[in-house]
């Protein structure tokens, strides 16, 4: 990820610092004695850890357009996960440091500090918040095998319990409570929106207009809006919830899919590859059945130096954002050139090659180059340079399987291409 600050990052920094700054007069400077220093560290880590927990909850709101404040929904989700894990670590440090700070007064005093009488409800509320976080986070460490995405989403209700219990721990003990009320309201409001309100207020009804096979295990589903359709830009994606009662899996589950149609298309089109139970069932979704869409999200083709020529590297079902952009090129009045490298195992797995070739024939600014793994092996720098000599000077966009993305990042990094000019879209964290 490029080291770039977005306006949303500044909001995060302020939100995390305000509770600490408000508490600073009571905390004072770090003392010199070991026990007192441990107590100070315990209090500071608790304040920052709770602020991170509440901010993590607030970032889960998932409003269209809000993700662009943070560089797109993929980056926002990475921040969400980083802050959540950091909050857990700091809360563990909070408990450990406060306990160790009381050891010089006696082991029994340290134990009583951490495990007080039942009447100390605020302290036991903190322990319950910690327990809820442990149960919620345990599946992410793969202690119990492969993480089941839908079950883990259901466990998010435990994170809501952890948030409320953590507030029940902090509010009675804090000097100034208004920062916690503010951050608590933002976090709780985001959860109420995501779990209770957005399913009915943020989703848009569509009907399946057609299901077109593109290759073995790959279809393009065309959707017709029941009312006003979503407005979107190339490179954005939606959360897709099918309601077809004949589906063998995935009914009522939301999954992210990149939009493959041009913005002017009256139908919204998405390409779906058979990668799991839900996507397998969608290969035969019923024409006329209802689906709900939420979005659009993403900022893949943001205006990163629009005067610079672009290089697109796409493979697998990750070709779809480039298909959307190629289909919409006729509507975009810009002079920059675009070269697409279509990376596929072979011609039979280049799902959209015929249409992309047609788009290239209609637009002199657009060029398509194929690279087939079964014939040539992994993409090499010499192949890239031969077909696109100025690739290192272009704005570069990557989308495809994680393994492909990792190889391309390593290749470009080895050639000294600045990370700020490499833009990537992946969905393995959504």
Automatic annotation (TrEMBL):
Gene3D superfamilies: Nucleotide-binding domain of ferredoxin-NADP reductase (FNR) module (3.40.50.80), Translation factors (2.40.30.10)
Cofactor: FAD
Molecular function as annotated in GO: 2 iron, 2 sulfur cluster binding; flavin adenine dinucleotide binding; metal ion binding; oxidoreductase activity
Pfam families registered for this protein in UniProt: FAD_binding_8 (PF08022), Ferric_reduct (PF01794), NAD_binding_1 (PF00175)
Annotated FAD-binding FR-type domain residues: 201-303
Domain of life of the source: Bacteria
Record's keyword annotation contains Transmembrane: yes
InterPro entries: FAD-bd_8, FAD-bd_FR_type, Fe3_Rdtase_TM_dom, FNR_nucleotide-bd, MRET, OxRdtase_FAD/NAD-bd, Riboflavin_synthase-like_b-brl
Protein name: Oxidoreductase
Species, as recorded: Halomonas salipaludis
